[in-house]
Amino acid sequence: MGSITVVQECSSYMNDPYGFDDVYDSRLPEVHRGFTLGDMSPTSSCSLIDTDDETSELPEVHGDITLGDMSPISSYSIIDTADGVSRLIDDISLHIPDKVSRIVDSSELTLFLDVKGVNLGRGGTVSILQIRVHPTSETFLVDIYRLGWQAFTTPGKLYPSETMKSILSSSLVPKVFFDVRNGPSALFSQFKISVENVLDIQLMEFYTRDFKVNNSTQLMGFWECLTHDPGITPATRATCRKIRDKGRTLFAPNHGGRPEIFNLRPLNNDLKDCIIQDLILMSVLYDCYIERLTISTRLIVEAEVKSKLMDLQSQNYPKGNRSPRKYGY
User: Fold this and answer.
1) Where are the alpha helices (DSSP H) in the chain?
2) Which domain does 222 fall in, by range?
């Protein structure tokens, strides 16, 4: 098979990594508070884990995030203290299996991951690590800008042998990214973390694509995948674009934003809604593609991801945000 590329130009991708410039319907309802997708009541509130009380549990979150008219699928918390990191580590560690299963089970622990920062990639700086935990549907924004190394080296209290670094590096914990290059590259460059056992949604789409319908040999961008996903209604997709566009005007230079906003505290609400939405939509795409992924194609995706992750650690790997994406299949 020949070379596969993403159609975005490099400058466009660096400013708009999901590369989808559709105009949303201006008649869609405004989102005033909470996090909503569709013409619904506010469906999310955010809890801040900032206490030093060693006996406290993960906070109760009273709101949920929903997609359209679907049932609630996520709550989220911000992690910005070492104590909060410890409790997050314990929360994840409860679900770590004793051994890896090659066949995906619906109850298996899976971490959906995204990284936000400035000039992500080799030499870039990480501001926020986004984590969505399956099967609990909990979503966490880990404040790397404030915590630095503490985010990755602070152990759990119930599981003192586990840290964020050990979990990200563990072959026992499946992880999911959309385009593995920039986030894992920044984590390795800045914190020497080698992410293991990773699936890439962008590659999953390609290897499960119906080439009778779409015979392109190009990898699709994030929002292009959502456009082709039959599981999301046009109305919900349009509302998702509006939330995305509000956030993009804040951080994307070609839309009037600047990536340094990821380092401002407290996080802007529109920015927060945008990046939380990314994680939820990642899980929606994953569910769509994992059902089509055979054992053999899964092994191909895993091998390609592993090869790319090894390239990221090479001294010759270019600095900065990488695009267009090219694979030698």
Assistant:
1) 10-15, 82-93, 144-147, 150-153, 164-169, 182-191, 201-207, 222-228, 234-251, 269-290, 295-312
2) 4-199+210-323
| Spatial CA neighbour of 186 closest among 131, 144, 221 | 144
Integer Cα distance of 240 and 256 in angstroms: 20
Say how far residue 192 (Cα) sits from the centre of its chain: 19
pLDDT reading at 226 higher than 80: yes
At 192, which amino acid appears?
Answer: K
What is the tens place of the pLDDT at every residue in 157-182? 999 999 999 999 999 999 999 999 88
- Kindly state whether residue 292 falls inside one of the protein's structural domains: yes
CATH number for 281: 3.30.420.10
Taking a C-beta distance cutoff of 8 angstroms, is the pair 49, 80 a contact? yes
Unique residue bearing structure tokens 């009380």 = 53
Task: Enter the tokens of residue 73.
Answer: 């699928």
Q: How many structural domains compose the chain?
A: 1
CA-nearest of 89, 69, 94 to 79 is: 89
**pTM to 2 decimals?**
0.76
Long-range Cβ contact pairs of 220-224 (< 8 A, separation 24 or more): 220/6, 221/6, 221/7, 221/8, 221/18, 221/19, 221/20, 222/17, 222/18, 222/19, 222/20, 222/178, 222/179, 222/278, 222/281, 223/18, 223/19, 223/20, 223/22, 224/19, 224/20
Least Cα distance to 115 among 157, 70, 151 occurs for 151
Mean pLDDT of the chain: 77
SS3 131: strand
Query: Residue 299 has what DSSP assignment?
Result: H
